[in-house]
Protein: N-acetyl-gamma-glutamyl-phosphate reductase
Organism: Bifidobacterium castoris
Amino acid sequence: MTKYTVAVAGATGYAGGEALRILATHPDFEVTTVAGHSSVGEKLGVYQPHIPQLADLTIADTTAEALNGHDVIILALPHGASGALAAQLDESATVVDLGADHRLEMRQAWDDYYGGAFYEHWTYGMPELILGKDANGRYLRQRDVISGAAAAGDAQPVSETQPVRTGARRIAGPGCNVTATTLAMQPAVAENLIVPHTIVADLAVGYSGAGKSLKRTNLLASEALNSATPYSVGGTHRHIPEILQNLAHAAGLGAEGANEFTLAFTPMLVPMSRGILASVSAKLTDKALDMGDDGIRAAWAKAYAGQPFVSVLPEGVMPATQNVLGSNAAHVQVAVDRRSRTLHAFAAIDNLNRGTAGQAVQSLNLAFGLNEETGLSKIGVAP
């Protein structure tokens, strides 16, 4: 079967570059167009020399005309830049927005943390996200929404030569900090093990998470090396409403239930290029206090059973960013502090891969009816 064609906007940035790195060896997708802004007319190899397979592609302008005509369009653009452009893209194409414009379901949350035009919420691209439970107590998953398993009657052909599929045509890629925090804590929320107004998340974040442009949150090496610094503190980080939205879904409340949770969230830039280590804590409920530690750990085993990219580490083994670098894997762990009645959950991910581009390709695989793991690795590059 002919490969699906892909156009990537924002191809010279970190997120766009990671998407290109993964897709360059994907057996079912072929990158045929790359787009940028100030780099128009130059060769991609000038900006992404680590991807020799695509080095000779000429960078086009980021316009609907350049992006349309492809099976897949990936928008690796800053927030506020993809919403208006997306409205001009082919309805038949599958579009993945790696920015924030289509993540939030509630307009008030967007107004409070972003401002500007509010765009329609797209299918959320986190396959492992829990959406509550069915009548038999089984977890509902976002995976079925992405793949179209929940709406198989809407099948339409991609083209005359490609098969009928039911997968999402508009996918919103989650935030990287959101991914780490959600994967760490959603089992506790789904099983009512924590008090929802006591959640605290502290994240160590690599500098690539701040983007490629030079700014105070993306410092010169002389200022960043041998130093760690918090940023977007005091409840101002824009990923907060998205995390609360996810936790509300995990509790089976829908996005409207986000107000049932509060989150004290502090990210800290640390001197590494990639990676996020999330340490998330909350007070234990009476239900959790009556359970043994093994029973609490079993909630994480249950939540991630059959989830190919999430590994619950053996008891006592802590997640480390080095062990997931370059992969779509997430390593999670949980510990209980009985003295302070606190649950501690941890997750390590590669912010550019699992947190952004890898998760997008995972969602594309599902949307196109491919094996979820195609083109993606669960193996890190340690040491």
